TrEMBL record:
Superkingdom, taxonomy of origin: Eukaryota
Organism of this sequence: Coemansia pectinata
Name assigned to this protein: Fungal lipase-type domain-containing protein
KW Cell wall biogenesis/degradation (keyword) present: no
Keywords recorded for this protein, A-Z: Signal
One GO biological process term: lipid metabolic process
Secretion signal span: 1-19
Domain Fungal lipase-type: 139-274
Amino acid sequence: MLIPPVIFAVLPTLALVHAAPAPIPSLLPPYNTSAIASAIANLESLTTTVQAGLMQYGARSTTSINKANNQTSVTTSNNLFKYCEYSGAAYKVLSNAWNCPINCQSANTAGTVVDYHWSLKTIPSFGFVAHKDDTKEIIVSWRGSTTLMDWAADFKVVPTPWPAHIDGSAVHSGFLLAYNAGASKVKTVVAGLVQKYPDYKIVLTGHSLGGAQAALAAVDIVTEHPEWTGKLELYTYGQPRVGNAAFSNWLSRQPFPIFRTVYRGDLVAQVPPMEMGFQHQAQEVWYESSAQTKFCGSDAENSTCQSSLSPLQWSVLQHLQYPGLSFDILYFFIGNADAIGI
């Protein structure tokens, strides 16, 4: 059963509540506070519309999907928080200087050195490559969506075959376009750092569209450099579904740890719908509450984790509330006033 285009027509509006860096108040342009308040007031109505559409067309997984894979590892709550800080930093790090507010100043991230920062606006791809000597790690973080143009890429739902070596694999063409825009230089920088720091691990992370790109990067990197498999870790936050079952099952079978983190009823984790042939990779780590996490194991779509919620419990706002992300919704509206026409 196909999802009617009207359901996806309403989804770009979700960019209005997407996370973004908090700009410096003294540098803010004039903005219309009443328009901001009105936009915020419309969030629940918008969420209800999307919930109803997805519920009607069966986006929710009611049974677990379990393929034999290696995703049964656990990690600490501090690691989940720490790499979410790095995911949030991708919205705020605007150069090779590690000096952003909050995320760059925590005990977990202080001392990080940015080796490469990219910002490609025509095809939205943003992020940084960094290393941290005391923890011996190379961190690559992709930014999520903060403008309407970015979100249009999120929901350009046309599966495209990729990568060639995985039989039957297909991924979201918009996500792949965004990833490929910066991939070549990112991989070159990472290769240089691996050569310089051969005993450092490689952590790929990102929030939202950034999480989707991190998942694509994991497949791309381990394919080109299988010798790096033992160094790799993947942490994503609020990641939408990236590819079909062939893609997600292949990724889930890799021996490096994957933590696809979902906060409570984050609606973005439920799109694109399974009805369109998309499937998450394992393993899901579900924040049942802000203080309680559940490791969902080898089930790619686990009916006892986020999919145990009804669509009426899904929330756009919870996409912004991941512990460690450190975003302020008001600053989002202010910082993107031009993009949303206020």
